[in-house]
């Protein structure tokens, strides 16, 4: 049995966490924000009680209906996205993490909505210990990444997902700015995680997500100096400097 009084969450002692988890089980969408405030505030900080909650979250996910399950998987995914790759929690909680991974894998196949799909895909990666992409795929949902040029360092926006996919160095919404078109990778140019994610999205019928991934892992031209660079590498570089 977990001795919650010896654990902590964002508010101090985790004694109240079992009752909070009971309420989350009864109403995952309604209590999700409150649960995250305690176990994963700003979706970027975790506590001993956060990982200790994984076995119960895995239990909720295996018994809940489709929508409830999604909220539970997103909560557990947010917690695991805060665990560094190779952290001991992957071993200590290997059984619930394996269950959460299997249920997320299944949920992805059944999810039609692209927004939900992208967040679940991040959860899947977080249970595998994949760093950065377990929280940076969501730019495909918001439609925008902010990166800097590897040569001239100018800050720019990479806009992906609409009819127009481009790089622009200023606020492209407010003014007429120079936009340079992005260069998506062709199917046979994708490798590694990029290929795996795109193949997966296609197999799940998520054509728009697959198309976004080809742009994310493709190339852009700096609108200021013309340097050609890998979009994904600049997303990773930005994250490593200022997570
Ligand atoms: Zn440049």
Summarize the SSE layout with pairings.
Layout: E1 8-9, E2 12-13, H1 17-26, H2 28-39, H3 48-52, H4 54-63, H5 66-81, H6 89-92, H7 94-110, H8 114-128, H9 133-136, H10 139-142, E3 144-148, E4 155-159, E5 166-168, E6 179-181, H11 192-203, H12 207-216, E7 219-221, E8 228-230, H13 231-241
Antiparallel strand pairs: 1-2, 3-4, 4-5, 5-6, 7-8
Bound molecules: zinc ion.
Zinc ion (ZN) binds next to loops.
In short:
The protein has two domains: 4-136, no CATH class; 143-241, no CATH class. It has 13 helices and eight strands.
Could you characterize the architecture of this molecule?
- The chain is an alpha+beta fold and 243 residues long.
- Helix 4 (54-63) runs parallel beside helix 7 and helix 5 packs across helix 8.
- The mean pLDDT is 94.
- It has helices spanning 17-26, 28-39, 48-52, 54-63, 66-81, 89-92, 94-110, 114-128, 133-136, 139-142, 192-203, 207-216, 231-241; strands at residues 8-9, 12-13, 144-148, 155-159, 166-168, 179-181, 219-221, 228-230.
- A hairpin with a 6-residue loop joins strand 7 and strand 8 (228-230).
- The chain is built from 13 helices and eight strands.
- It has two domains: 4-136, no CATH class; 143-241, no CATH class.
- Helix content is 53%, strand content 11%.
- The structure holds zinc ion (ZN).
- Zinc ion (ZN) binds next to loops.
């Amino acid at each position: 049995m977990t001795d919650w009084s010896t654990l902590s969450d964002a508010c101090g002692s985790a004694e109240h966490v079992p009752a909070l988890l009971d309420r989350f089980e009864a109403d995952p969408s309604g209590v999700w924000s409150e649960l995250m405030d305690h176990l994963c505030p700003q979706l970027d900080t975790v506590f001993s009680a956060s990982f200790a909650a994984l076995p119960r979250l895995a239990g909720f996910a295996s018994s809940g209906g489709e929508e409830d399950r999604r909220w539970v998987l997103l909560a557990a995914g947010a917690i695991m996205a805060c665990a560094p790759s190779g952290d001991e929690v992957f071993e200590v909680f290997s059984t619930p993490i394996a269950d959460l991974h299997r249920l997320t894998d299944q949920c992805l196949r059944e999810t039609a909505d692209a927004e939900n799909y992208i967040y679940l895909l991040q959860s899947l990666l977080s249970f595998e210990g994949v760093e950065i992409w377990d929280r940076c795929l969501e730019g495909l949902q918001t439609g925008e990444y902010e990166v800097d040029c590897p040569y001239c360092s100018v800050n720019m926006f990479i806009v992906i997902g609409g009819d127009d996919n481009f790089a622009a160095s200023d606020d492209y919404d407010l003014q007429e700015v120079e936009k340079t078109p992005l260069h998506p990778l062709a199917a046979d140019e994708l490798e590694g995680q990029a290929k795996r994610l795109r193949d997966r999205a296609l197999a799940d019928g998520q054509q728009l997500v697959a198309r976004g991934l080809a742009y994310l892992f493709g190339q852009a031209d700096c609108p200021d100096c013309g340097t050609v660079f890998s979009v994904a590498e600049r997303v990773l570089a930005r994250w490593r400097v200022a997570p």
